[in-house]
Fold these 2 entries.
Entry 1:
Amino acid sequence: MELLIATHNPGKKREYAQILAGLDLKLRTLDEIGITVDIEETGETFVENARLKALGYMQLSGLPTLADDSGLEVAALQGEPGVYSARYGGLKGEAQLRYLLQKLDGVPLHQRLARFVCVIALMRPGDSEPVYVEGVLPGVIEFEMRGTNGFGYDPLFYVLDANKTLAEMSDADKNAISHRAAAAREARAVIARW
């Protein structure tokens, strides 16, 4: 079975390939099948954005499709940045991390609870609605950036069980516990039933 991974990112395809290994699948990316359209993430939730992408790319490709949306939710900020994680504060990179730290200025460690969330929508031609699975990684937002591995909010996201930030972990250790890996393992069970 061919399965479209709704991304232009070859790294994301590799990550899913590892988790879906052993299933009789041929994974394809948007670039590999010639889709250049970017479906806008106009939803207000991770579920809505994953649904938009799964439905849109499934219709464009005619293939069973896996689409995800993910981000960071900080309790003290009422769930911000949430679905706006990639464009929080209109900033990118280290400036975005400094913006988050500024928003949390004066907030003690025990009130800096956060979680990474990944929602995957799986849809086949003929389905009326996607199947949704979710993965969550709980943590705490650090007071300063630590570590150089990873990307995004990893230098600020402290994982209690690991006693380090995601940016201080190896790729293998991070991928074993990540929100995306947890959701992908759930997705694997759905795809195996297909």
Entry 2:
Amino acid sequence: MEMSGASVCIQAGTTTELNLADWAGANGISYDSVVVETSAQSLDGFLAGRCDVLTSDVSQLASLRAAMDDPDAAVILGNVISKEPLGPVVRQGDDEWFNIVKWTLIAMIQAEESGVTSENIDTVTTNPTVERLAGRASQTHEYLHLSPSWSYDIIKQVGNYGESFERNIGVNTPIGLSRGPNQLWTKGGILYAPAFR
């Protein structure tokens, strides 16, 4: 709210550009746009002092900050001004691949919710959902045209959603993101998986 009059590096043609305009207009904040073509140019402009601020979605900002020689020299402001959901995408019209990608994400989220990790997936249980995730009691592979161990292989090799998040962009990585809304619904986030059957 104190950035009125600031110059802002922003990538042209992005929803971020529109979100900033909406937020600034709604809050009576004026700013000077320094429009660039790529996120790398946005960071270059910021580092060179051509802009006071750069804007993007939180994960992109964290990635750009991690690329700086001194990441501690920049701060990501805590007030998020828009919702920009990020997730896996596939080419339209490839329904089989779409289903595989969708069910992969569902399996990873369900595994985290069920307490299944890359370390404990080999433990046999009496929980039907866990047994389906481990590939020991499911026919889901038939619908996806995959091997019976497809979800087991993903969880064993990649981990559940939380393991993958923490390993790649979590608080103990150079990107340093907290889970925030990417937490399970049972822990106050927005992630949930439909019934894994």
